[in-house]
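Entry:
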Amino acid sequence: MHLIETGNSRIGIAVRDYIRAFTQRSRWSDENLLLPGEISRFERKLTEEWEDLFAEMEDELGPAATEAQKVAAAKAIYKWAMREGRRSIRPGCDEPFVSKGSFHILADDLRVGWHVDFLSRLMTILEPAEASAAQ
């Protein structure tokens, strides 16, 4: 979220939604309230919708995009995920924190991101730590 210059209050909200979604999903699992593959189908739905918008963003930005343009486009993707990308995991379960937090869970797993260069930039940060941990 720092890549898209998100303020601390929005980061706090993201952490809250992440924790709430993680806790809810864990509870469903612990209490055997999930159908087989339900979480993975839900995550696939979220990821596929994100992929469509992310690919569109990549095309619109092009290779000559400035950092300011990349950040502005990333903020639009993030806003979509938090406002319009809300999906219900099942009928009757439409708490916004479930989909919002699930997007953050997917982002934490590097399966989705907001900034067009999120993977390459995060790999640059994470690889040195992984290399030194292996030594």
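The longest helix spans residues 38-61.
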